[in-house]
Amino acid sequence: MPMTPAPRKVAYLLKRYPRFSETFVVAEILAHEAAGTTVDILALRPVAEAYFQGSIGAVRSPVTFVPERPGKAAHLWGLLDDLRQNWPAAWRALEHAEILDPDDLFQALWVARLVRERGITHLHAHFATVATTVARLVSLMTGVSYGFTAHAKDIYHDYPEDQQLRLKLRDASYVVTVSDYNVRYLRESFGADAAGVTRIYNGLDLTDMPYRSPVGRPPLILGVGRLIEKKGFDVLIDACRTLADAGLDFRCRIIGGGERQGDLERQIAQLGLAATVELAGPLPRDAVQRWMQEAAVLAAPCVVGADGNRDGMPTVLLEAMALGTPCVATPVTGIPELIEDGVSGLLVAERDAPGLAARLRRLLTDHRLRETLAAPARLRIEREFDIGENAARLRALFPALAAEALPMRRAS
Fold it and tell me: At 367, which helix (H) or strand (E)?
């Protein structure tokens, strides 16, 4: 009687899990589970955040926190000996790993042993930095396949260390990124090594995100995101000063925390906006969404940072558009693929505070324009950003879920 092939098992390899700002990862895992695919979640770094998405409690997939470094030298040598005995070809494979960071190597050795113990046959990483570094090393050592999703900072940021992105693109079974803009950039930058990059948008579970008309909402501007350069909140505060000088009655609430909080607090004080602009700090996702449905407009004045860091396609824009809140944003990276100016939102040039103020004023004062933009925006999200459909497209790239075990990859 022929033996039934062992089911293939997928693991998600992430730098940190859970992360408050990475709602798309949780949504993706939940969509896999809803389709009957449970994944092992492997986290490489601890989490130091006060708030998490409520949806994390619905995740059934097991989570394993990978030790960052060996407690004792004997632990590392034990893992190396395990590698030597169980995957002798891996020694030759590691010759092709190029630069090896000792901590990355240790975590890869630890994950490699877990791969064998749990029967994991495919790794999917999010972000092309440390998670994909470790996934590639594990693949070289064990022969299991890996793929990854590239987002924005991991593509554009000027890192001090070589991230070996070309090698990761070359060796992966597939590479996904979150915008057509990213696809073009990777293909232009890496040529044949990026020829197979596929665009799959991040998605939302729309079942608990009802559309509500923005007509009749109070004159509240909402900003949501980490308080870092690429979010452009300093430009938003300057725009608020312009609106206040014009005598407009409004409030602005910025939700999030980050390294630029002190700078933004000083800017608010210097411009005399303490009674108008509030830095509300980080809030749970359900509270953020409640504020979204109170706001007349969401502002996302994203910029390209001095270090090249930029947003790919901010999830906050997807959520606001789904909930019926009209958006004003900048045409950075993939945002114009989401917002068509004058149809599903308004666009303004980067760092253009007067232009941003003008567009915010239109939406604060014109209730009909809000509805004119918000309704098509919701339809856009339903058509292109449904997490069930987009997660299914990603699963289709995973190796088959029932197949014979992969042979050991031979080092050349």
Answer: helix 367-384
